Amino acid sequence: MSMDFIRLLQETIGRLLGYIFRFLRIKRIEDKVSKLQKVITKSEQECYKRNVNHENLHRIPLLQFNEKIAIADDFYINTKIVTFTKTMAKLTGLIYTSGGGGTCFLQKIRRLVDEAGNSTGRAVFTFTTAYHVFGAEDKLLLDWITYKTKVILFYDERIEDFFNEKKCPRLKECRLLDTDKEEGIENDWCAIECEVDCSKVFVTNNQEKNLVDTLESCLQIYKTQQKEIYELLTNNTIRKNLVIIVGHPHYRPKQVSVGRHYPSLKDEPKKVRSGQLWCRYYYDAPTCIGNSGSPVFIPGQPIAGFGYWFGHQHNHKRNVPENLFPDKYEIARKETPKLQFLGMSSIGVELC
Ligand SMILES: [Zn+2]
């Protein structure tokens, strides 16, 4: 056999194997997408809020949320708040674990350095969420590692993007950092950390971008925009009881929920130390399973420390069952007679 023939044979086999592997990879992803689609459909069919929430005009896919958004009734959303919400959405991820899933929010990025102060090429992302997304509470601290926690970023457009790691980077090295469990207070907040390689990239609009640089800049913009909104509010140009929640209801690509919160229902279970207050908000923005841990933005909250937040902001906790809290519904319906469901946030810390 001539050398040319052998080379040709090798090339043909190589090409053939390439086709087979590509085919198998596409097939594997198609299988995963169809499995995820089934999980979403099942979760939506079983949702007791489906008739009220799923077609609700107050819940908008992120990519359709813009300055011209028409929301039923008298909701007018200031342009600055729309822009801010989009920044907040970039910092919002889907978190999934062996025990369940929900939404998480990037609060902080820390670049790691060695003893001499040189970069190690690694960074730590701190996310906040609700600890019931793990499907466990008391056991969480002990069995953390078994929950195999992952965070998916920029899952904004299509269900199949969930498996497209170039578009939607997946963070795997996560650990539990802190929870706010406290005797006598129904808390549900926790912080997790994920370690990321500083050279990690993702693709957006056919352009490759550095993940750590991009998110660091988003965090900076987030703080600046939040400050601007706080100032606008003091000039009375923004509706006072507006609430905006960004999340992944039923594990769908990102959606924005808009509604009002009810200041008269606000819980204030504890004063931490002078000038600081633990509190919880109640609101009617439509939320479903998967929204747990979502960032809850209330313009003008007097929270300091991180922009205008102290340490952490409020995350969405859960629906408020009417049979357990009839008084809350009665008070809220004085303002909104057609109110169907109330949601509550986790405890956050404010200035008072
Ligand atoms: Zn639902």
Automatic annotation (TrEMBL):
Q: Name one GO molecular function term.
A: serine-type peptidase activity
Q: Which InterPro entries match?
A: Peptidase_S1_PA, Peptidase_S1_PA_chymotrypsin, V8_ser_AS
Q: Which domain of life is it from?
A: Eukaryota
Keywords, in A-Z order: Hydrolase, Protease, Serine protease, Signal
Q: Where is the signal peptide?
A: none
GO BP terms: namely: proteolysis
Entry protein name: Acidic repeat-containing protein-like isoform X2
